Amino acid sequence: MIKKIVFSGIALAVLLGVFIVARVWLFSPEDGIKRVSIPEGVHDPAEWGKAYPLQYQGYLKNREMAPSPTGFGGSEKTQKAVMEPANLMNFKGMGFSKDYTEDRGHPYALEDLRETERLTPKTTGACMTCKTAQIGGIFKDKGWAYARTPLTDLLPTLKHPITCSNCHDPKTMNLRVMNPAFIEALAKKGIHVRKASRAEMRSYVCGQCHVEYYFEPETYRVVFPWNKGLQPEQMYAYYAEKPAGFTQDWVHPDSQTKMLKAQHPDYETWSTGTHGMAGVACADCHMPFLRESGRKYSSHWVTSPMRTVEESCRTCHTQSKDWLMARVKTTQRHVWDMQLRAGSTVSRAHEAIAKAAADSRVNGAELENARELLRRAQWYWDIVSAENSMGFHNPAQVLNTLGQSVDLAHQAIATANRAVSASHGK
């Protein structure tokens, strides 16, 4: 009886071994995706989808609009001022006070550009730099001259939003960067994109657009303020030197302060955060690896990692999904609370300076000091408010930045009040 059990066990083990060998070596599905070349200049994702259906199905999910799983951000086209009323005062006198919505997915890039109320007849072509897959061809034909071209002239020629070709070489499918401003910014730091590793490119393709930038006066060339570093105070120091004559994005009509408008500095914030410093790429979290019938591929649903916790987070973190979600929510709640405080205090500083300026006997030197304090305070608030992770990309830096904003705004209020008191001899 014992011998029969032993022999049965051996036979079962042999059969199992044969099955495993056959499964792995003879009938294993392809581990990876076969590369198919696409003609240069084909930007329609549906055409790419014929060769890469799994990636295309993921890309289409970017058209879904839904609130964030953490309650912050999301892809619904809602006005930010609804939740953050200070935006209306802080951006008074410029387009973001009229229309400033949550970001939607890449397929909506051109549609949202066409529909925004921020556009005017004076809007230049520089604004479409990160809105279309056609930027590569446009830059090849026109160079930086496209940046000065009226956007109304360019929009009719733009047919495709951000698609596959923004990030992939159509011939080799290797990752690539198309934004000339990003390439130039890295070159100034001694980094050549073409020599970058695949791991680096998994962040560069995102960083080429998810960044802070400004338009150079006269040329409207897109420039990244990175010469002194990527942290908020380093970028502010860069702007303080009035690069190429750039002094402000607009002048606030109430406080008469020369203001800066931060864009979406996700790359800068991430790069000095825990994940960025540890070499975790943007795509590792926002476009995690998936498997379909044994084939490994990168998700092209560019979304919050909290929608894909198992694939995005738990490949490194051993804690439960609920634990990880709770940590993210806690961080974002703390940042949101400080962001509201900072925005509100900055708003009061605009009012205090406007009130002081209306006094005919105000001390002009003190008033200018107040304006400089306000300019810095709003920059520190806005560079957090404009970033898309609600602080999670770099919690320590973000909370410190917001704390500086609150302090600087209070200093601006006190200085404005002192400017009036001193003039009255009190």
Model description:
The protein has 426 residues and is mostly helical. The protein has a domain at 45-319: Flavocytochrome C3, Chain A (Flavocytochrome C3, Chain A, domain 2). 46% of the residues lie in helices and 4% in strands. It has 17 helices and six strands. The protein has helices spanning 2-26, 45-49, 53-60, 86-90, 109-115, 135-142, 151-154, 180-188, 198-207, 232-240, 266-271, 274-277, 282-286, 309-312, 321-357, 364-385, 395-423, and strands at residues 214-215, 222-223, 250-251, 258-259, 289-292, 295-298. The protein has a two-stranded antiparallel ribbon. The protein starts with a helix and ends with a helix. Residues 4-9 and 11-31 have low confidence and may be disordered.
Q: Rg from C-alpha positions? A: 26 Å
**3D shape:** globular
H and E order: HHHHHHHHHEEHEEHHHEEHHHH
| CATH-assigned fold name of the domain at 45-319 | Flavocytochrome C3, Chain A, domain 2
Tell me the structural class.
mainly alpha
Write a brief structural summary.
The protein has 426 residues and is mainly alpha-helical.
What are its keywords?
two-stranded antiparallel ribbon, mainly alpha, 17 helices, 426 residues, Flavocytochrome C3, Chain A, domain 2
